[in-house]
Amino acid sequence: MFRYNTGCTHAGPTINMHALEVNNLKKTYANGVEALKGISLNIEEGDFFAFLGPNGAGKSTLIGIISSLVNSSSGEVKIFGTSVQKQRSVAMSYIGLVPQELNFNQFEKPLEIIVNQAGYYGIDRNTALQRAEKYLKQLQLWDKRDVVSRALSGGMKRRLMIARAMVNEPRLLILDEPTAGVDIEIRRTMWKFIREINESGTTVLLTTHYLEEAEELCRNIAIIDHGVIIKNTDMKTLLGSLDIETFVLDITEPLSVTPQIEGMEFHLRDQYTLEASLPKQKSLNTLFSSLDEAGIRVRSMRNKSNRLEELFLRMVDKGATQ
Amino acid sequence: MNAQVNWIGYKTIVRKEVMRILRIWAQTVVPPAITMTLYFIIFGNLIGRRIGDMGGFDYMQFIVPGLIMMSVITSSYGNMVSSFFGAKFGRHIEELLISPLPNWVILAGYVTGALARGMMVGSVVMVISLFFARVEVQHPFIMVSVLLLTSIVFAMAGMVNAIFANKFDDIAIVPTFILTPLTYLGGVFYSISLLPEFWQKVSAFNPILYMVNGFRYGILGVSDVPIGWAYAIIIFFGVVLASLCLYLLHRGIGMRA
């Protein structure tokens, strides 16, 4: 006999169980588009997992299948050991979903939206009201609880969807680009909240286009491209595999010719901006002493992109050219 | 525990639906009240006086059951189709689709919401009718049961329409081109005994005829069709539509990719 998770207790199987198991999952849409070509993936309980890929790679299809909004063509998804395809109701009681698109009734008020969502998970009204207050306060929306939600700002609407996803206190929280279009200050507030949720034991699956976000928050990562997982590893190993790093140097004197230094690559963006790519085994001291010898003085320096972004672009570009 | 989850989920959907009906009362309850008042004044009072008796009752009394039934049918259907399609269009149906609630609870919740609107509107029209005609209910159980069952049948028909609809035009086609003509030809304003034999036979294929007459039998004690047939037809359509709704929800037609 399976029991639903209403967040009061984490009922159901828990020992040696993956939070998410995806086995040879395929999805071909009615128009013939093959969105997933047999992917497999495991996420451990308590993990903070990043799922990245370019637009149209299959991320949202996978999330749709996990949350039962998309029917798979073949393969299986298990949430805490319960098959989404075979025991949908039980599997759904374990998850909370923050979708990419706004999907709440914009004529309803935030408090109503959250309390109703709790009701769909069998949570009684008093508990639902307490939880709604807790999450709306944590996400700084409590003073907007009785405002018609279409009047909320973009960032508030995104936070409302997070509060709604948390009301059943899910064991697996799925965030599909939760910070899209949100300013940096609110984004960092949301990061803090999600990190605390994860620290309290909730497994988090995150897709995002902000690679800085994935690098900052996630411990493990999978990259999907053209419906195939091209990388599935932990963040440290992945970042450690970056063999070349590119820096942008602001220089004091104008340059007209690109410098040639052995073991490094340079690209002159404009006469005051130089890009330097150097292998991981070369230290920055070598770069600076070589530039010094060439008579080039550096005023300031920054990474061209964050490390994960650099790796991601290389992998995806490689996939596109194959 | 699952039964408790389903019960709370069901109550939540019903509550949400009823709140919606009350929030937009000017669109949900007032228009049928005005329309039916006009019907009573124009058809019942002005024209009805020249018609005289029908089925042994004065014309105003005769049309009371039909007008109540007509408003219940259109309100139940309209509530379901607009609410469910609105949820689909605004994507907040996903709140329910990703929840643990089984499809039959979702169906039951929405049907109860449509039933609530049907009964609200039916009660208002009944009260209005009391200003125009003397109404003595002959068979209260039959009156109530036929009304409830008919409301449920049309709520489920509304869900089928909403599931297949892709745009707002699609939810107007069925009420305009199918529901309204069948209701007008379903004996709301006349007894089919007035029709030539051929058209009486054609009318026998109109399911709304059985619903209107079943309800008229409950109120006035007269009917153009046997009351047993009325129940059989209503229950038959109820079972078929319930099965169809559950099948469509299970397959996720129009909702799950």
Which SSEs are present, and which pair or pack?
The complex is a heterodimer of chains A (322) and B (257).
Chain A: E1 18-28, E2 34-44, E3 48-52, H1 59-66, E4 74-79, E5 82-83, H2 88-92, E6 95-98, H3 110-120, H4 125-138, H5 154-166, E7 172-176, H6 184-199, E8 203-207, H7 211-217, E9 220-225, E10 228-234, H8 235-240, E11 244-251, E12 265-270, E13 273-279, H9 284-293, E14 298-303, H10 307-321
Parallel strand pairs in A: 3-8, 3-9, 6-7, 7-8
Antiparallel strand pairs in A: 1-2, 1-4, 4-5, 9-10, 11-13, 11-14, 12-13
Helix pairs in contact in A: 3-4, 3-5, 7-10
Chain B: H1 2-23, H2 25-28, H3 30-51, E1 53-54, E2 57-58, H4 59-89, H5 93-97, H6 103-129, H7 140-164, H8 170-184, H9 197-203, H10 207-220, H11 227-251
Helix pairs in contact in B: 1-6, 3-4, 3-6, 4-6, 4-7, 4-8, 4-10, 6-7, 7-10, 7-11, 10-11
Biggest interface, chains and residues, is: A-B, 35 and 31 residues
Note the overall shape of chain B: globular
CATH architecture level-2 label of the largest domain in chain A:
3-Layer(aba) Sandwich
Helix/strand-derived category of chain B reads mainly alpha
Q: Could you give the order of the helices and strands of chain B?
A: HHHEEHHHHHHHH
CATH topology of the largest domain in chain A: Rossmann fold
Computed structural class of chain A? alpha/beta
Placed side by side, the strands forming the largest sheet of chain A appear as 6-7-8-3-9-10
